[in-house]
UniProtKB/TrEMBL annotation, chains A, B:
Coiled coil: none
Residue stretches of biased makeup (Pro residues): 111-121
Protein name: Transcriptional regulator, ArsR family
Region (Disordered): 102-121
PROSITE patterns registered for this protein in UniProt: HTH_ARSR_2
Gene3D superfamilies found in the cross-reference section: Winged helix-like DNA-binding domain superfamily/Winged helix DNA-binding domain (1.10.10.10)
Domain HTH arsR-type, chain residue ranges per copy: 1-91
A Pfam family assignment: HTH_20
GO MF terms, alphabetically ordered: DNA-binding transcription factor activity
Organism of derivation: Geodermatophilus ruber
Superkingdom to which the source organism belongs: Bacteria
Length: 121, 121
DNA sequence: GCTTTCCTCAACCGAATGGTTGAGGAAGAG
DNA sequence: CTCTTCCTCAACCATTCGGTTGAGGAAAGC
């Protein structure tokens, strides 16, 4: 389907039903039937949604008798986080430079350190 | 078009060309022509992409003579960040609770709560 | 064996998406 | 006023997407 992994993750989360599934899966693993129950669509539609999430690497399915328990995979979220953080750093860098120009070039003071807890690449 | 703001933001960033535009706009504002130049598509296509980004609130356009300078709007990224953080909190909460269960096993704890999930807000 | 439960695959459908081309508005340059 | 530049709107086209229904596989229960 769609090309790069990042596009797949963003596209997968662009659907509110899929986002809701992810939210619920963050609480507990669930079977396809359990996942489908609150929504007003067919089980097949939910199965399709799960395939999209699985292709994006957000979810994995194992096997337990006839059931296919769905499990949320956390790592892929880091892809997004990293991309967003990169943008954020660039934007801050941009404003920092603008600030420097307006302040007539100070030495190397960093007036706005990124307020983040460890997520740096 | 697509419904809620969060869906629009995710959908807007699901396209690699649009993500690249955002990356470049994080460095500096740009006109439509400047933005279109590196890509192998028509200017109209780029204009459409910008419309998607604008509808998502990621970008704003002003007017300078015939030119329409494009400016990146940072606030909307917080929508995503907040959603991701909420997921992260839930996931951590989940593992914390699992830890509690394995450690203590109280009486009236239901280890598999029925799918009475609240809708995602 | 047969049935039931849980789930996926396949085909189809309408709507949205990303691209094209062509026409045209808006504003500066001559 | 005319021309050029920059950009958007409109129509069209192929593909993808989210949904449906119908058929069927896999594993437990009878």
């Amino acid at each position: 389907m769609a090309g790069d992994p990042l596009s797949r993750v963003f596209a997968a989360l662009a659907d509110p039903t899929r986002r809701d599934m992810v939210t619920r899966l963050a609480v507990a693993d669930a079977t396809v039937g359990e996942l489908a129950e609150p929504y007003d669509v067919s089980v097949q539609a939910v199965s399709k949604h799960l395939r999209v999430l699985e292709d994006a690497g957000l979810v994995s399915r194992s096997r337990d008798a006839q059931r296919r328990p769905v499990h949320l995979e956390a790592e892929v979220f880091d892809l997004m986080t990293k991309w967003i953080e990169r943008y954020r750093r660039q934007a801050e860098e941009r404003y920092r430079r603008l600030d420097d120009v307006l302040r007539d070039m100070p030495d190397d003071v960093d007036p706005l350190p990124p307020p983040q807890e460890g997520q740096q690449s």
